[in-house]
């Protein structure tokens, strides 16, 4: 029997809709190395957004599904990514940052 892997469905979302989402407290990444790499990617994305006005894609998981947003990252705290207009995404819910 052959097993096939099904890619997860990723729902595009707008930054204006993020404030309506619910985020569990659990970490979405499997190990410490992945969390370190995510942090480095987020720091790089802040520089890209603030210096070069470059947009990035963030894949994140709310309570229901994986979502993707294309935006600028304006700031970063220990626990949150800050987008334009004060919208925030918890870092522990971010799966990937794409440049």
Number of strands: 7
Helix content: 25-40%
Structure annotation, total helices:
2
Given helix and strand content, the structural type is alpha+beta
Helix and strand pattern: EHHEEEEEE
Q: Which class in CATH terms?
A: Mainly Beta
What proportion of the residues form beta strands (DSSP E)?
25-35%
The CATH topology corresponds to: SH3 type barrels
**How many domains, as an integer?**
1
| Sheet with the most strands, sense and barrel status | 4 strands, mixed
- Spans of at least 5 consecutive residues with low confidence: none
Explained architecture:
- The protein is of the alpha+beta class and 99 residues long.
- It has a single domain, classed as Roll (SH3 type barrels), CATH 2.30.30.
- The protein has two helices and seven strands; from the N terminus they run βααββββββ.
- It has a four-stranded mixed beta sheet, with helices on one face. A three-stranded antiparallel beta sheet has the order 4-5-6.
- The chain is globular and about 50 Å long.
């Amino acid at each position: 029997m052959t097993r096939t892997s099904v890619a997860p469905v990723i729902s595009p979302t707008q930054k204006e809709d993020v404030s309506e989402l619910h985020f569990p407290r659990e970490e979405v990444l499997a190990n410490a190395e992945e969390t370190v790499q995510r942090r480095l990617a987020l720091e790089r994305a802040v520089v890209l957004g603030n210096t070069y006005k470059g947009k990035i894609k963030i894949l994140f998981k709310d309570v229901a599904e994986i979502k993707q947003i294309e935006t600028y990252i304006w700031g970063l705290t220990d626990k949150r990514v800050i987008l334009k207009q004060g919208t925030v995404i918890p870092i522990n819910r971010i799966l990937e940052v794409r440049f």
